[in-house]
Amino acid sequence: AIACYSLTKKFPDSERYGLVQQIRRAVISIHLNIAEGCSRRSFPERRRYFEIARGSSIEIDAALDLAYDLGFSTIDEMGTTGNLLVRVFKMLSSMMETN
Question: For the chain, how long is the longest CA-to-CA vector?
């Protein structure tokens, strides 16, 4: 979340209510869905929240691709955030398989 917030601070002001807000909402969604999923008693319920969180990580990845294509950021600036997104995706995938 911190990496996404730091990265989007550098986006143009014109994207404050566009990509910046979308990325930030998605990164918050990851945290909140993990928290709510962990509170569920049944595995299918937990899995569903983790699946939603994983979808949000994919949403962020797509938004960052678009931001790069629009020239809002460089590959170097996105490197850390991209690596963290891959780790989050893998962790969530693992959590979805764990009983």
Answer: 45
